[in-house]
From TrEMBL:
Protein name as it appears in the record: Fructose-1,6-bisphosphatase class 1
GO BP term, example: gluconeogenesis
Class in the EC hierarchy, top level: hydrolase
Pathway(s) it belongs to: Carbohydrate biosynthesis
Pfam families assigned: FBPase, FBPase_C
GO cellular component: cytosol
Family membership: Belongs to the FBPase class 1 family.
Gene Ontology molecular-function annotations: fructose 1,6-bisphosphate 1-phosphatase activity; magnesium ion binding
Organism: Mycoavidus cysteinexigens
Length: 336
């Protein structure tokens, strides 16, 4: 096929055009993308590779780890250790940060990832994915520690996700729009298939786990009730609902045709502000969504401006089509 642009070519052209993509960041993104290829391969093997089922352990969140969670985490750690572009890594699957071993050179970036998002879908052949975020290690004289990672999402220099679905895609932003690459499985290369993805401001589609409805706070109850009333209510139009239970898959749909994704905090446990993790789930996705002209808040504030206090902290999430995110955020402000 003529005129195919690979991820490598795209990144080199970015480097030339914007002069804002340093060579080591480019290499780092390529290594992450290569690791995603390997994860995709293992996900595709499933039972044939003995990859399904529980690993018999729990992660820092107290969630049972699946074999593929562990395998994907190991792939990302191993792929990114030796390249010389990183100062340290952090993962959903690791309680502590992961320093680059002494035998390898160190770089100036910090990589955070959720190796396999959508855990409940791993064993049932529904789309799952990898999410990553890149920050700078600002104080190079200091060995990175957890504190070094606690930067607002606005400081991200790159973010992306892969979806392992009917096609494997890699969606990336370095702050110059959002671009989607599809894995050519025969050639093993990422091919640019969508440039400058845009989320329409208006939408008729929403995503929320409605089984939690009775626990929601009043602004979320009000917003969802209005959507459910459809044409017969305040909104005077019908809305459709979709919930994959893999954030990456729901977000990928929203990037393609609009929608709002919500995982609110609820009244069950005040110490748990939502389910999703700020640093390696909400922040990278919020960066991508904003770059695609959407919006992302925790109901009160822009997610990217939140100052993290812990590596694994959780956050409420409302993201996607701007008109809807603005509306549900306004309800939070109006109703306290
Ligand atoms: O832990 C993250 C996650 O798996 C997301 O990918 C997904 O959107 C959500 O949790 C699913 O939550 P629930 O199990 O409540 O449907």
């Amino acid at each position: 096929m003529q005129g195919r642009i690979t991820l490598t070519q795209y990144l080199i052209e970015q480097q030339r055009q914007h002069n804002s993509l340093p060579a080591d960041l480019r290499l780092l993104i390529e290594v992450v993308a290569r690791a995603c290829k390997m994860i995709s391969h293992n996900v595709g093997k499933g039972a044939l590779g003995n990859f399904l089922g529980s690993a018999g352990s729990e992660n820092v969140q107290g969630e049972v780890q699946k074999k593929l969670d562990v395998v994907s985490n190991d792939i990302l750690l191993e792929a990114n250790e030796w390249g010389g572009n990183l100062a340290a890594m952090a993962s959903e699957e690791l309680e502590q940060i992961h320093l680059i071993p002494h035998r390898y050179p160190k770089g100036e970036y910090l990589l955070l990832f959720d190796p396999l998002d959508g855990s409940s879908n791993i064993d049932v052949n529904v789309s799952i994915g990898t999410i990553f975020s890149v920050l700078r290690h600002t104080d190079k004289t200091r060995t990175p520690d957890e504190q070094s990672f606690l930067q607002a999402g606005t400081q991200q220099v790159a973010a992306g996700y892969a979806v392992y679905g009917p096609q494997t895609v890699f969606v990336l932003t370095t702050g110059h729009g959002v671009h989607c690459f599809t894995l050519d499985r025969e050639l093993g290369s990422w091919v640019l298939t969508q440039s400058n993805m845009r989320i329409p401001h208006a939408t008729h589609e929403y995503a929320i786990n409605a089984s939690n409805a009775r626990h929601w706070h009043p602004p979320v109850q009000r917003y969802i009730n209005e959507l459910l009333m459809g044409k017969d209510g305040e909104r005077k139009q019908d809305f459709n609902m979709r919930w994959v239970a893999s954030m990456v898959a729901d977000v990928h749909r929203i990037l393609n045709r609009g929608g709002i994704f919500m995982y609110p905090a609820d009244q069950r446990d005040p110490t748990k502000p939502g389910r999703l993790r700020l640093m390696y789930e909400a922040n990278p996705i919020a960066f991508i969504v904003e770059q695609a002209h959407g919006a992302a808040t925790n109901g009160q504030q822009r997610i990217l401006e939140l100052m993290p206090t812990q590596l694994h902290e959780r956050v409420a999430v409302f993201l996607g089509s701007k008109d809807e995110v603005d509306r549900v955020t306004r309800y939070h402000h109006e109703m306290g």
